[in-house]
TrEMBL record:
The lineage of its organism: Eukaryota, Metazoa, Spiralia, Lophotrochozoa, Mesozoa. This is Sm protein B. InterPro entries: LSM_dom_sf, Sm, Sm_dom_euk/arc, snRNP_SmB/NAA38-like. Belongs to the snRNP SmB/SmN family. It comes from Intoshia linei. Keywords: Cytoplasm, mRNA processing, mRNA splicing, Nucleus, Ribonucleoprotein, RNA-binding.
Length: 155
């Protein structure tokens, strides 16, 4: 099974032609498949051959084309798959390289990746007399010690 899997895996992102039981043909970019051979394609076009009715004078078959876009095709209906072409090269992405220093002034959205470092405010000394808490609460030398209390008098 691994040989068959690796064989079809090498054609992911290729342009393929899929023929169905009812003689329809789909051409699109092959994206994925599963164990039932259901396939996913995008940028897909459907080609159908329309045969004229027996009573018509003009007995020429013509082909209709429909743009479908993104499709999931049931593997039960697939008769054959043929490679149409290699995956598209991304040469236009390579041409769009922008130096980093050009984009240094661009605004960026806020992300939740890492919390910003919070710096506590710097105290610039005690508040002036008469503002805030009473003086003995602010001065550590005069404050009442917190804890279990004083030792018993006999010790």
């Amino acid at each position: 099974m691994s040989g068959r899997t690796s064989k079809i895996m090498q054609y992911i992102n290729y342009r393929i032609r899929v023929c169905l039981r009812d003689s329809r043909i789909f051409i699109g970019t092959f994206m994925a498949y599963d164990k039932h051979m259901n396939i996913i394609m995008h940028d897909t076009e459907e080609f159908r051959t329309i045969y004229p009715k027996k009573k018509s004078v003009n007995k020429v078959a013509h082909e209709e084309k429909r743009n479908l876009g993104f499709i999931i095709m049931r593997g039960e209906h697939i008769v054959s798959m043929t490679i149409e072409g290699p995956p598209p090269n991304d040469s236009h992405k390579a041409r769009m390289k922008i130096p980093i220093n050009v984009m240094s002034g661009m605004g960026r959205g806020i992300s939740r990746g890492m919390a910003p470092m919070v710096v506590p405010p710097v105290m610039r000394g005690a508040p002036p007399m008469g503002f805030g808490a009473p003086r003995h609460a602010m001065d550590p030398r005069q404050s009442i010690p917190m804890g279990r209390g004083f030792a018993p008098p006999r010790f």
